[in-house]
Amino acid sequence: MMVEQLARNGKGNGTKEGADLYYPSADVVERAQVKDWNALADFSSKDPMGFWAARAEELGWYQKWDSVLDDSGKPFYKWFVGGKTNIVHNAIDRHLHTHRKNKLAFIWQGEDGAERSMSYFSLNREVSKFANVLKALGVRKGDRVTIYMGRVMELPIAMLACAKIGAIHSVVYGGFSVEALHSRIEDSQSRVLITCDGAFLNGKVVELKGIVDEALKRTAAVETVVVYRRTGKPVHMEEGRDYWWHELMALPIASPKCETEKMDAEDPLFLLYTSGTTGTPKALVHTHGGYSVGIYATFKYVFDITDEDRYWCAADPGWITGHSYIVYAPLMTGTTSVIYEGAPTYPYPDRWWRIVEKYGVTILYTAPTAIRGLMRFGEAWPNRCDLSSLRLLGSVGEPINPEAWRWYYKNIGKDRCPIMDTWWQTETGMFMITPTPVVPLKPGSGTRPFFTLRAEVLDDHGRTAAPNEEGFLVLTTPWPAMARTVYKDPDRYVSTYWTKYPGKYFTGDSARVDEDGYFWIIGRVDDVIKVSGYRLGTAEVESALVSHPAVAEAAAIGLPHEIKGNAIHTYVILRSGFEPTEKLAEELRQHVGVELGPIAKPEKIEFVAKLPKTRSGKIMRRVLRARALGMPEGDISTIED
Ligand code: WT7
What whole-number distance in Å separates Cα of residue 297 and Cα of residue 294? Predict the structure, then answer.
């Protein structure tokens, strides 16, 4: 068909041809590492293991693997079995013997205007020093370390220091709050916690250390807290438990020489908690070997990375996007990355565009919610900045609506920068459905699965949905960066992802495939709500509400929101003796903010006398949603009352 043909020939001039297809310009095709998408797709699908082995060969190993994939224990797949490596060996160590030694690894911009940059040489020094500090604090290979920080350079440094000595990091997003932090510490049983005194956001200070102190009242797991000073505002320091980062780093224990631990390919690198259908958030486990290979290959091909690039992923390192594509993959490819600490609109709505201009950013990777938020302020803001350094844009986190896509393409990319709409998950570790720069684009579609991968849309009975018919998105081939399990709960891994369609990975998303084979993600089909691209579980919001003395029962649902994509709406049954007032509703919103985090604050709280439930007592959120949207309620034969 046409799409294939044009991609193959690399025709097109960057303008829109025909209905809703955007072709890459000759320049884009010229510099692309993969000029012929179809040829590589064909070749790699015939020999997927050959494709991944070749990518792995591009990285450094202490010892080569015996087999690329071991699927004997599926769905517990193993990759690069027998291989020995450490992601830090590829992210830092290897560059120290090349021209990249003095290249910038990070350029950091504080919200308050502070600026820092760090070469690979200096990054190695800081990481080695902090790795030795961790060792002195008793951290050993396999120990979990929780990291709860603002967006400072010490966050990647702390992650890399853990990885270097074989400790398992568990980063908790700095926008989470007391209970979210506590439950993640408790589950991982981290004895060491690394945090900041506070973080700058929107001209205000988020008091991270205060949140830590509250969370630690609820658990005895943590013995030592390391506090990085960012804001300088006074904080409580618990004698014998809390230590300043800068003081530890000035001690003789913080020697700049530290050997990188040789890890098995399958050894865990990190835990990352994410919300699911039920109960508490679960930690996905990612490894040193396969994860490295997967994120490296996808980053290289999708963003067409070269040594000249200045790459900026505006997400937070605390999410999988940041782990894979702020910290690890950019460093593995020797890229210079920008990290910005604060809010996109502080002090003015052109802050991001000023950063692009100032540092000559060539690739900007962000989320639809941010684009919609900035769109609101109009194109005069970006138009006043020189955005000519940009050559590629990216989108992630939720479906991008075509209107936002076109605005981004026109006003930021100036009609010349292809948009890489990357669909993936905490669980997948790496991009799964994504174009590469030469693939013709349709606004709102992530196009097709990455090389070697296969995805399908199925109906309830496991039959392939017809073109354009909505169904469940599944992945039918294993990939190297796949999460290996749910930490301490392999049964949950199997039941959540591998049971609905045995042998196939269930994504939790609904989607459709169009007549050209392009995938269109529709949304979550489980009790996960994507608020501004952040993933939250209805169960988490509900238990935060129920932890307030006034609340007997609560239900949370997601409803469409113009900027956030979805917003949280809640229904609350009060305990007797409490009056449903506006003041109480506000108090409950604040309470959710304190327990879970500001992002989880409900948009709306409605007091009700009853909730629709099944006879077995499960809240029928589907019915609440349908009612709120004025849509048919569907099958309610199982409703109790
Ligand atoms: C869920 C995973 C992967 C990094 C950030 C999110 C949604 C993600 C897209 C996209 C449509 C997307 C899906 C997915 N999602 N990227 N490009 N188009 N939807 O990771 O927090 O684990 O969330 O985000 O619903 O299942 P996450």
Answer: 5
Give the tens place of pLDDT for each residue, 242-264: 999 999 999 999 999 999 999 99
Please give the angle made by the CA atoms of 31, 35 and 38, to the nearest 5 degrees: 160
Query: For residues 610 and 115, what is the distance between their CA atoms, to the nearest angstrom?
Result: 54
Each residue of 129-159: b (16+ CB within 10 Å) or e?
Answer: bbbbbbbebebeeebbbbbbbbbbbbbbbbb
Extract the tokens encoding 511.
Answer: 């989607």
**Which range is least confidently modeled, 125-139, 253-267, 275-289, 332-346?**
275-289
Burial of 37 (0-12, 13-18, 19+ CB in 10 A): buried
Average pLDDT of 410-419? 98
Indicate whether residue 320 lines ligand 1 (CB < 6 A): yes
Contact present, 286 and 269 (Cβ < 8 Å): yes
Q: Which residues pair with 225 in a beta bridge?
A: 193, 242
What pLDDT score does 278 carry? Answer: 73
User: pLDDT tens digit string along 522-553?
Assistant: 999 988 999 999 999 999 999 999 999 999 99
Q: pTM value?
A: 0.96
Rounded to whole angstroms, the Cα distance separating 419 from 192 reads 40
Rounded Cα gap, residues 329 and 87, in angstroms: 10
Residue 19: its pLDDT value, please? 61
Residue 426 CA, closest ligand 1 atom number: 22
Instruction: Report the C-alpha gap between 427 and 319 in whole angstroms.
Output: 11
Q: What is the pLDDT of residue 641?
A: 60
Q: What is the C-alpha to C-alpha distance for residues 410 and 414, in angstroms, rounded to an integer?
A: 5
Number of helical (H) and strand (E) elements in the chain, helices listed first? 21, 31
Ligand 1 pocket, residue 321 CB under 6 Å: yes
Q: Nearest to residue 516, comparing CAs of 445, 602, 450, 417? A: 445
Token duo for residue 232: 């300088």
316 within ligand 1 shell (Cβ under 6 A): no
Determine how many CB atoms are found less than 10 A away from the CB of residue 239: 5
pLDDT of residue 277: 76
The CA 275 to ligand 1 mean position distance, Å, reads 12
Give the residue whose CA is nearest to atom 24 of ligand 1: 397
Cis peptide before 382 (omega within 30 of 0): no
Encode 276-301: b = buried (16+ Cβ within 10 Å), e = exposed.
Answer: beeebbbbbbbbbbbbbbbbbbbbbb
Distance from the alpha carbon of residue 581 to the mean position of ligand 1, in angstroms = 36
Per-residue pLDDT at 5 exceeds 50:
no
The secondary structure of 212-247 as a DSSP string is: HHHHHTT-S---EEEEE-SS-------TTTEEEHHH
- Nearest to residue 481, comparing CAs of 171, 162, 69? 69
